[in-house]
Amino acid sequence: MQVREGMESAVGNCEHYVRRCLLNTPCCGKMYPCRLCHDRNEDHEVNRFEVEILVCTQCRKDQPVSSHCKYCGILFGLYSCTKCRVFDDNDHGQFHCEECGLCRKGGRENFFHCKQCGICLTKSIKDSHKCREESGKDKCPVCFDSIHTATEPSLAPKCGHLIHMKCHRLIMEFGHRRCPYCNQDY
């Protein structure tokens, strides 16, 4: 067991989650509140599934990944997914989708997993979306971030190319009414 000193710069600086642990990232050996904070500040991405050590922000002790501190007992987050290394006190309707292999936001009751597309989509488009084999692995055509690992929900236009909802809203504000991939009308 190691007790960490000098964690103040990493503690409490996460805009993504409210949690009481830090990830000891194996790629660079630095501590970050979450994978998104790490990726924003480093020139590489952390593989969240390779994180094996958490540091409790209360007692500052290193320990294997779990939902609570094995030393002081504090919960690392009211929502905890040890598979995804997600801990959060904010209720965003988080749920883990075994088929995606990731946690999603928005409430399990509002989503379905499309096996052909390989991603969770909103139930409102279940009967109307056009499946494209593993389209969930696409990059958003606007921001170029991953559709599959995004914290932002995605939209599936008639053509079947996925786009983040926030990116879709942005291009609609500028009057674009066609898919950035194939130029089909929305």
List its salient traits.
186 residues; mainly beta; 2 helices; 12 strands
Fold and architecture overview:
With 186 residues, the protein is mainly β. It has two helices and twelve strands; from the N terminus they run ββαββββββββββα. The chain has helices at 35-41, 165-173, and strands spanning 21-24, 31-32, 53-56, 62-64, 79-81, 86-88, 95-97, 102-104, 111-114, 119-122, 154-155, 163-164. The termini are far apart.
Summarize the structure.
With 186 residues, the protein is mainly beta.
Fold topology:
Elements (H helix, E strand, L loop, with lengths): L20 E4 L6 E2 L2 H7 L11 E4 L5 E3 L14 E3 L4 E3 L6 E3 L4 E3 L6 E4 L4 E4 L31 E2 L7 E2 H9 L13
Antiparallel strand pairs: 1-2, 1-3, 3-4, 5-6, 7-8, 9-10, 11-12
